[in-house]
Design brief:
The chain is globular. It has 2 domains: 172 residues, RNA 3'-terminal phosphate cyclase domain (UDP-n-acetylglucosamine1-carboxyvinyl-transferase, Chain); 91 residues, RNA 3'-terminal phosphate cyclase, insert domain (Dihydrodipicolinate Reductase, domain 2, 2-Layer Sandwich), CATH 3.30.360. Helix content is 32%, strand content 29%. The protein is built from 9 helices and 16 strands.
Amino acid sequence: MIHIDGKEAGGQILRSALSLSAITKEPFEIVNIRASRNEGGLKQQHLEGVKAMASICNADVKDAFIGSKELSFYPRDILGGNYKIDIGTAGSITLVLQTLIPALLFADKKTYLEIKGGTDVKWSPSFDYYYNVPMRYLEMFNVDLNLELIKRGFYPKGNGIVKLEINPCRKLRVLNLVERGDFERIDLFNYATSDLKKADVIERQRKGFEDEMKMKETYHMNGYVDALSTGTVMHAHAHYEKCILGVDILGDKGKKAEDVGEELAKKLKFEINSKATVDQYMADQILIFMALAKEGSFITSKITDHVLNNIKVIEKFLDVKFKISDCSVSCYGKN
């Protein structure tokens, strides 16, 4: 059994451990789950990720309850098919997808998922970021999948719905993302709930973005949407010949719409002005797929704690090693 100490990390290492345990059929025990957080232990979205993975690989699980700071997981075969997951809160749908997608590449057949919860919530990738950045990299890895947004859900009521279809893919393509290629365009996605229409929130957010970027985006998607809770979300990404760099941001009560757009532009400019081929928010997510391919490399704008912690977990389950030099990350098989 693999032992993991989650004392200095958040939920990312649990998500990776669940995926890799299912893939390798290696049981694991994690202690001190999210101990560094103000409210440590399993939260609802983590628990639903555990339950979903347990269903998919028919696992035995010990100590899976809200607030639990330790967990044991004993996986069996990964089974495709139809699954419905209701997080029950505005817990992040994209973080549940992060947990399940790597394992579902090794399922016995195609999988259909319907997940209900939060599509655009704090401390997690927004739906538009996830759709336009991680999903595009997964396609580069030769993963065959389709993600569909049915309804948006903001904090605190959630109630968003996302559907996923994914085919097995046991052989991933090796990606060496060491150069960007030519710049192509910037895409902007800009949404707010219908109750904010009178305040012209979408238009003001876009103005803040464009004033700071000093350039117009080539492609723009926006709209007012119906949801149970008030919210706004923006996502932008820069297309290059060989990579995509993306960022996102949520609006917040008391924060000017123009300031939201301006902050998003500053985040994107930081990624563009670096030498990155993978933005800092994608860097920790791409590691597991690179490790499953047993080779690969990329340059990111910043080595985050998420990257470092995720590498530690991956190296416990898979026969690979990672090397970090400045902001360059490479992976290679030990044999």
